[in-house]
Amino acid sequence: MLYQWYETQRALLSPFAEFASATAKLYSNKLSPFATLPGSPRISAGFDLLNRLAKEYEKPEFNIHSVRVADTDVAVQERVALEKPFCRLLRFKRFTDDVTALETMKSQPTVLLVAPLSGHHSTLLRETVRAMLSGHKVFITDWTDARMVPVDAGPFHLDDYVHYVQEFIRHIGPDVHVISVCQPTVPVLAAISLMASAGERTPRTMTMMGGPIDARLCPTAVNNLAMNKSHEWFENNVIYRVSVNYPGAGRRVYPGFLQHTGFISMNPDRHLKSHYDYFLDLVRGDDSSVEFHRDFYDEYNAVLDMPAEYYLDTIKTVFQEFALVNGTWKVGGQLVRPQDIKDSALLTIEGELDDISGAGQTRAAHGLCTGIPKERQFHYDVEGAGHYGIFSGRRWREKVYPEVAKFIARYEPGQQAAQAGSVAKLSDATPAKNKPQPIELDQPVAPRAAAARRDSSVARTRAARKPRRGG
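RESULT FIELD:
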């Protein structure tokens, strides 16, 4: 009944949101006589804020229409490379008439970005895609809102997620470089492990960013919830059926509005302050700050429903049984063996202030991928970055992306020479502690010390932090 109650509430609020939007414009439009009344900026700002609190947020667009390659602006077009019931594989195809730029694009590495299926749409990686497009051919997984998938399409389990990733890799080809962000680090590692066990060629590189490979290390509030409640509790308390006004009517899902509530409850004071600042920025006419707020919350408030089977499988496999790190995870009856991966290089990335995937959780992949030679394993700690900061915002653009690009180039035939020059140039300006470091396999991760450093930094910066993707 909760799903139906939420939909009823949303339907009742929709006319009010439209009214608030119209009233805000009535008191702010320069051609309106109401805009000349005393206090009109505050009235307009108040109704604008009410509209944003009451409106429904649809899936945003990527809105990437051009990028710069070889000092030339090239056009970008989204194309569906492969379509499955629960996901589309999108390619950002680039076009240009410039011969130099065209030759450059042809020689650039191919990247598969595996976006998280954890409540937000894949457009959360918009800045990740935009940065990668300047030097790479980019594909991304675009997960479908489960409420839009008819029941006759069947269920979607965590095993299906793994099979989807495998199918996407095979479709693109083994020369691809795979980047997984947050939640998909686990199924992506499983997918590539199973391919290696079967004797298939694996991707050239694996880059894993801020994911719960080993959720036992430095558990966060998100981890604790999943660990401290039973599997039955989740099934009885957070799983509901989609209401009749959607194509997926009757499908069991973990609703996006519950996930959104969880996101907000992690930092309610920061979100309240952000909305109050937005009201003041409207009154002052600070257009840049207003647009920043709108852009962030248009993305943050747009959530999707997850298939119940996938959600419950993830809780059980990743956060309760720790099946990957315990060596007990089977996908389709086949044991997942990361140690069978031998040819792919591995880079793990963690944010110092990440409050979703704790310190050491992603780095734990190195302890599992023992078949990869030590000199092909790297880890990068991003100082001052929160969870979103490792794939979006200033730190992503200035710190993380250059290192990811160098790592990919290192294992891309024909690009080693360019990569070597890039390393030499960057090393002059980048402190050694901020650069990816080779992993010493005989030195265990020290999660307690890492957590202490993170908690200390969080305490120093929390008062100044505002909700933002840049981290």
